[in-house]
Specification:
The complex is a heterotrimer of chains A (176), B (305) and C (806). Chain A is of the alpha+beta class and 176 residues long. Chain A has 5 helices and 5 strands, in the order ββαβββαααα. A 5-stranded mixed sheet of chain A has the order 2-1-5-3-4, sandwiched between helices. The radius of gyration of chain A is 17 Å and the shape is globular. Chain A starts with a strand and ends in a 5-residue tail after the last helix. Chain B has a 5-stranded antiparallel sheet with strand order 4-5-10-6-7. A 4-stranded antiparallel sheet of chain B has the order 11-12-13-14, sandwiched between helices. Chain B is α+β, with helices and mostly antiparallel strands. Chain C has 3 domains: 186 residues, Aldehyde oxidase/xanthine dehydrogenase, a/b hammerhead (Aldehyde Oxidoreductase, domain 3, Alpha-Beta Complex); 322 residues, Aldehyde oxidase/xanthine dehydrogenase, molybdopterin binding domain (Aldehyde Oxidoreductase, domain 4), CATH 3.30.365.10; 170 residues, Aldehyde Oxidoreductase, domain 4 (2-Layer Sandwich), CATH 3.30.365.10. In chain C, strand 13 and strand 14 form a beta hairpin. The N and C termini of chain C lie far apart (68 Å). Classes of the chains: A alpha+beta (176), B alpha+beta (305), C alpha+beta (806). Chains in contact: A-B, A-C, B-C. Chains A and C meet through helix 2, helix 3 and helix 5 of A and helix 1, helix 2 and helix 16 of C.
Chain lengths: 176, 305, 806
């Protein structure tokens, strides 16, 4: 009556985590309730709202539309894995604060993961690109305008930060 | 909204999967991308005893392009097919239609073959497969069979696949010479299932006159519908008045109303969108024949590239 | 001097936590809790003849199943009718679990508690309920026809019948040179926060106390309701509001059945129990709003001045009436907007239907009222061939007439008196912003190109900051950190930031030293809740008053210690210092230490307050009219609501072929008095406009004749994505401060959504040349309207069904 159970390992935010789940366990529930990573939120459980979006091997996917067992062994990035090791907000996170891109914050993790991946493929987005990037995520609070602004701001911050990294590398003599 | 319990198997070889499916038969459901299946499971509208996950069968993860067309393995994600440069060259309609399938995040996981097997009459790829006259390759312990698109879709969410069969590949024929395609749809929100969608294919003769005009429709009938519109526009130049195509199409369909659109509105959209894709496809075919520059400046109202 | 924080676009202090996944929403809590799932009615109207749980008992991990038979005492009574009103003639509320009849698809019949939600749903699926179906009543028309009744003892399906009148409207209309009648319809929508409802309860059998967390807009309301239902002293119930993933009204209602059943089960089972609503449940068992039919008669003169207005409307309140008449009363009063209509009569029926209950959703009846009034003004303009903005200006209440008494009773039971506003100035700003005077030329040029464009205009006034009251508590700790608490809750409005801005200014401290807590009854047990655009007005004012109390005490204590006159002291960046002698100063933390006379020193700093160190031996250590500690608590209880206002304009383009409706521009002029944080206010406007776009063009809740909700999912309930909202919203603010509160604030939370149905109907009418009288409108609807109007002279057609009579 409870179906088959499976032992699995997920590499979550670069840390291998083992757990045992019934086959029907959704990845969203596994992350939240088996692994205690409650930053990933569940807004609809039918794949429409995007709040539960995580990166699977770097690619945005709905964690409510994946069985945990089905991604056994794969690398998962959640919102908890976006900030730097010292806790510094990532460019996308910082941009959301700068642009008032969140209100209640419930849908935000799905936007952050989606945009983080999106900016890798499209590092210099136009406003249209930004709208396309977040086109599958629902937000009921912000009206999206500040989120679009945050995508553009995040791209700017990313460029500035990589400039700083490059400058630092030059300063430290790592780069001729 | 949590799935009922099931047993889960994850074969890594195709043979193993086929054997398991033969063994479990009607009690099993195949999981590929799962972007349509998981909501059904979570809403408990489907409650299979066994789930057969084919995501580790590497040999099904391919897009291969040849002169005859594009072969898409059962594990190829929509996003992979959409991005595949070879597929774009061989059959440009694929990427044009795939761009309309839900949102990018769904396309990252959902598979094209899975979408076809799901046989939703509101989905894009079944209509594309039908318009192009493609086929599905199915395997079971009894061997392999190839099912023509025209025989594959039996009703809403109902395909000709046997319970013991695994759809392993879809074949989309290449764009014929002197031809062009276009895709257009109207959905309530960007990324929603279409209220009405049309894929068009036009072939021109050497004088840039229409020799073949066909269109495939989604969301207007219980199964994907293909209409031959050649009679309405045959012999017209590619940039002439092609609106008879839309008239013929809207007279030929018998759509159902739903909460988003009346039947008459759908029928009206069939006409409007048919004209848009036929014009778009005709221009693209003309460009194919005359080279890139010749028709570039011509308008292609509404049709997606 | 420390720079003033109120008025600054300060980044939110809430954000860092929410951005790293460290928010704590309801389902993030109670990881060890048992979980509850609800068996809900599949029928819109039926008698329950049997409930058989036998098969469910086999489910492994099952802890308990409850049906109505298991409820006792107050729990077995119907849930409360929260806001009684004399006009309610048949007030019906549901039982926590259906007793013998269900009245909407989704009504709770039984609950299951199991080790987790998966198992709980397994058990729910195995409970067999037998029903005897009854004929369902769906939609306002069916309710009015009353061929069948929702409640046998509510004749005509009428829950309430209400009339208000100022002057003799019928006579004024009859005597007017011009008259029109309009029939209007507006459909249901719903709050639809991204996080559904949820509740977690923990019973401590040692101390016999209940602690619960709930995703609510009203923690003190839930507390009182649960205490009453469970027969507990209020002091034994604590309600904590965690992060709430949006509310928009639906989380005001209390208690929801689950809010009493979860603590009941937690107490019975002796372990924490949690309910997390799923999306389907939210659609069929939370609340909806907006559905009304309206009939309007208006009489006016040749300048467009309204001489008499009579409005009759029918409000669909769903299956029960837990929130009383608040929504239709607001419609009936806020309909008047910035206008003075001469004589006014309004009459409404609030009607039962076999559908989900109707309770306030952002805007709370105002969108319907504004729709009625603005459609009427457009009709008058059309009838007389006058500019639509001119007709509005003709009917405006003038600034010199403030405060303006409409002679009606508002939703708070108090007179409808506008406190402030400059409507001509707002309209002038909006016309400048949208380029009103250039519009006819633009539209003509577009038409010449075969394009159909339309400009819409709508104005509203919004009563905000309703009472009865809110309170604030401000305490300075010996560390110098400042703890602020208020009882109302937060769902993303940025209260922690806005209230910290207020306290920073009042006390002269850095925002970084301030921590604000909302919605925790342990910290502040007296409160009303967050709704009706009231938080900034009521709690903001209360916190400001409490901070002023603390400031007085700081100055008094510091003056003693510094041997200075309090008048000569100032607080700058957390230091109390003598004006002109900044060297003579004392940190606020030290003042806090001195404010609490001590016998025992617990650390180095506290030595300064011990008995051999300080104190006047001729006085008691704590004076008669004094209290130890550096804290203050105060309340703000407004005499009346304060009235914000705004005006929106939208330009749309309708596709001549596909009837798709595209937004080209969206302009807002908004007056919410003093802005605490423009960033937050504009965010509220953006969000409101987006919800308004949803309500006007996309969202509806479609019931079939059997009472089944046809679109109970995000697939088919078309909440806008980014692709559906305007690419920019142009905003201009007018600040006419409210005279009713210490900060001059008016509410801003609901504003953006209020004029949406009206402004889009106006714009689409302008684009199409025929009147839009039913909202929301889809391309399919517009296509059908075009067919109906084909052949008529669309650009001269009136909105109204009757031509002028003189």
């Amino acid at each position: 009556m409870t179906g088959s159970w499976h032992e699995l390992t997920l590499i979550v935010n670069e840390v291998p985590l083992r757990t045992t789940v019934p086959a029907r366990r959704l990845l969203s529930d596994c992350l939240r309730h088996d692994l205690g990573l409650t930053g990933t939120h569940v807004g609809c459980e039918h794949g429409v709202c995007g709040a539960c979006t995580v990166l699977v091997d770097g690619v945005p996917m709905r964690s409510c539309l994946l069985l945990a067992v089905s991604v056994d062994g794969q690398a998962i990035t959640t919102v908890e894995g976006l900030a730097g090791p010292d806790g510094e907000l990532s460019a996308v996170q910082q941009a959301f604060q700068d642009c008032h891109g969140l209100q209640c914050g419930f849908c935000t993790p799905g936007f952050l993961t989606t945009i983080t991946a999106g900016l890798i493929g499209c590092p210099d987005p136009t406003a249209d690109d930004a709208r396309e990037m977040i086109g599958g995520n629902l937000c009921r609070c912000t009206g999206y305008l500040n989120i679009v602004a945050a995508v553009l701001r995040a791209a700017e911050l990313t460029r500035a930060r990589s400039g700083e990294v490059a400058d630092a590398a030059v300063d430290s003599g790592q780069v001729p | 909204m949590k799935p009922s319990a099931f047993d889960y198997r994850r074969p890594e070889q195709l043979d193993e999967a086929i054997d398991l499916l033969g063994e479990l038969g009607p009690d099993a459901k195949v999981l590929a991308g799962g972007q349509s299946l998981l909501p059904l499971l979570s809403m408990r509208l489907a409650a299979p005893k066994h789930l057969l996950d084919i995501n580790r069968i590497a040999q099904l993860d391919f897009v291969s392009c040849g002169a005859d067309g594009v072969r898409v393995g059962a594990l190829a994600r929509h996003a992979a097919l959409e991005r595949d440069a070879g597929a774009r060259a061989v059959q440009p309609l694929l990427s044009a239609a795939l761009a309309m399938v839900a949102h990018p995040t769904i396309r990252n996981r959902g598979t094209t073959v899975g979408s076809i097997v799901h046989a939703d009459p509101a989905a894009e790829m079944p209509a594309v497969l039908c318009l192009l006259g493609g086929s599905i390759t199915a395997m079971s312990t009894n061997g392999q069979r190839i099912i023509c698109a025209s025989e594959f879709f039996l009703g809403p969410l109902e395909s000709a696949l046997w319970e013991s069969e695994l759809a392993v590949e879809a074949f989309f024929p290449a764009l014929p010479p002197q031809s062009g395609t276009a895709f257009a749809e109207i959905s309530r929100r960007h990324g929603d299932y279409a209220v009405c969608g049309v894929a068009g294919l036009v072939t021109l003769d050497d004088d840039l006159r229409i020799s073949v005009a066909r269109a495939g429709y989604l969301s207007v009938s219980a199964t994907p519908l293909v209409l031959d519109l050649t009679d309405a526009v045959s012999g017209r130049t590619f940039d002439g008045d092609l609106s008879a195509a839309g008239g013929l199409a809207s007279a030929a369909v018998d759509p159902e109303p739903d909460i988003h659109a009346t039947a008459d509105y759908r029928r009206h959209l069939v006409g409007v969108l048919t004209n848009r894709v036929i014009v778009g496809a005709a221009h693209r075919a003309a460009r194919e024949i005359t080279g890139n520059g010749a028709t570039q400046a011509l308008p292609m109202p509404g049709a997606q590239p | 001097m420390t720079s003033r924080m109120v008025g600054q676009p300060v980044n939110r202090v809430e954000d860092p936590r929410l951005l790293v996944g460290a928010g704590r929403f309801l389902d993030d809590l109670g990881q060890d809790a048992a979980e509850l799932a609800v068996l809900r009615s599949p029928h819109a109207h039926a008698r329950i003849t049997d409930i058989d749980v036998t098969a469910a008992l086999e489910v492994q991990g099952l802890l308990a199943i409850y049906t109505y038979e298991d409820l006792s005492g107050p729990l077995a009574d119907p849930l409360p009718l929260l806001i009684p009103h004399p006009a309610i003639c048949a007030g019906r509320t549901q039982y926590a679990l259906a007793r013998d009849e269900v009245n909407y698809v989704g009504e709770a019949i039984a609950v299951v508690v199991a080790e987790n939600r998966y198992l709980a749903e397994d058990a729910v699926e195995r409970i067999v309920v037998s029903y005897r179906p009854l004929p369902p009543v769906v939609g306002v028309q069916a309710a009015r026809a009353a061929e069948h009744l929702v409640h046998e003892d509510a004749p005509g399906n009428v829950a309430a019948h209400f009339v208000q009148e100022v002057g003799d409207a019928a006579a004024a209309i009859a005597a007017a040179p011009f008259r029109l009648e309009l029939e209007l319809a507006i459909e249901r929508s719903a709050s639809t926060p991204l996080e559904g409802r949820g509740v977690l309860a923990q019973w401590d059998s040692d101390s016999q106390r209940l602690r619960m967390w709930t995703s609510t807009q009203t923690s003190t309301g839930v507390r009182a309701a649960v205490a009453a239902k469970l027969g507990l002293d209020l002091g034994r119930v604590e309600v904590i509001t965690p992060d709430v993933g949006g509310g928009f009204g639906v989380k005001i209602v209390h208690p929801w059945p689950e809010e009493v059943l979860v603590p009941m089960a937690a107490r019975a089972l002796g372990r924490p129990v949690k309910f997390t609503e799923d999306r389907r449940e939210h659609f069929i068992s939370a609340a909806h709003e907006r559905g009304q039919l309206q009939h309007i008669e208006v009489g006016f003169d040749a300048t467009g001045r309204i001489l008499g207005l009579s409005v009759r409307f029918w409000h669909d309140n769903g299956a029960y009436l837990p929130y009383g008449l608040i929504v239709p009363i607001i419609t009936s009063t806020q309909l008047l907007g910035p206008y003075k209509p001469g004589a006014y009569r309004v009459e409404f029926d609030s009607l039962y239907t076999n559908t989900v209950i109707v309770t306030p959703y952002r805007g709370a009846g105002r969108p319907q009222g504004v729709y009625a009034m603005e459609r009427t003004l457009d009709a008058i303009a059309g009838e007389l061939g006058l500019d639509r903005s001119v007709v509005r200006a003709t009917n405006f209440i003038q600034p010199s007439e403030m405060p303006y008494d409409h002679g009606l009773i508002f939703q708070d039971g108090r007179p409808l008196v506008y406190d402030s506003g400059d409507f001509p100035a707002s309209l002038a700003k909006l016309k400048a912003l949208v380029g009103w005077d250039d519009w006819p030329a633009y539209q003509a040029a577009a038409r010449a190109q075969g394009r159909q464009v339309g400009l819409g205009l709508a104005c509203y006034v919004e009563g905000t900051g309703v009472g009865p009251y809110e309170g604030g508590h401000v305490q300075i700790e010996t560390s110098g950190r400042i703890k602020v608490a208020t009882g109302l809750t937060s769902q993303g409005q940025g209260h922690q930031t806005a209230f910290a801005q207020i306290v920073a200014d009042e006390l002269g401290v850095s925002m970084d030293d301030i921590e604000v807590v909302t919605g925790d009854t342990r910290r502040f047990p007296y409160a009303v809740g967050t709704f009706a655009s009231r938080a900034a007005v009521t709690s903001g004012s209360a916190i400001a008053l409490a901070a002023r109390m603390v400031r007085r005490k700081i100055l008094k204590v510091a003056a003693d210690a510094l041997e200075a006159d309090p008048e000569d002291l100032e607080i700058v960046e957390g230091m109390v210092r003598v004006k002109g002698a900044p060297g003579v100063a004392m940190a606020l933390g030290t003042v806090a230490v001195l404010s609490n006379p001590l016998r025992y020193a617990f650390d180095e700093a506290s030595k300064a307050a011990t008995q051999f160190v300080v104190g006047d031996s001729d006085l008691p250590p704590v004076n008669e009219d004094d209290e130890p500690g550096l804290e203050g608590r105060d309340y703000y209880s407004p005499l009346r609501s304060t009235f914000a206002n705004g005006m929106h304009a939208v330009i749309v383009e309708t596709d001549p072929e596909t009837a798709e409706i595209k937004i080209l521009r969206y302009c807002v002029v908004h007056d919410c008095g003093t802005l605490i944080n423009p960033l937050i206010v504009e965010g509220q406007v953006h969000g409101g406009v987006a919800q308004g776009v949803g309500g006007a063009l996309y969202e509806r809740l479609v019931y079939d004749d059997a009472g089944q909700l046809q679109n109970a999912s995000f697939m088919d309930f078309l909440m806008p994505y980014v692709s559906e909202v305007p690419e920019s919203i142009e905003i201009d603010h007018l600040e006419t401060p409210s005279p009713l509160n210490p900060l001059g604030i008016k509410g801003a939370g609901e504003a953006g959504v209020i004029p949406s149905a009206a402004v889009f109907a106006s714009a689409i009418s302008d684009a199409e040349g025929f009147a839009i009288t039913a909202m929301p409108i889809s391309p399919s609807d517009l296509f059908e309207l075009r067919r109906r109007h084909a052949g008529t002279d669309r650009h001269n057609e009136s909105i109204a069904k009757k031509e002028p009579t003189r």
